[in-house]
Amino acid sequence: MSDVLHLTLANASSGEVPASAMEPTAEQQIAIAARGGNLTLSAGAGSGKTRVLVDRFVALAEEGVSPTAILAVTYTEKAAAEMKQRIVARFTERGEHEMRRLAESAYISTIHGFCARLLRENPIAARLDPSFSVMDDLTRGIFLDEQIEAMFDDPWFRANVASFARDFD
Question: Across-strand partners of 9?
Answer without folding.
Answer: 43
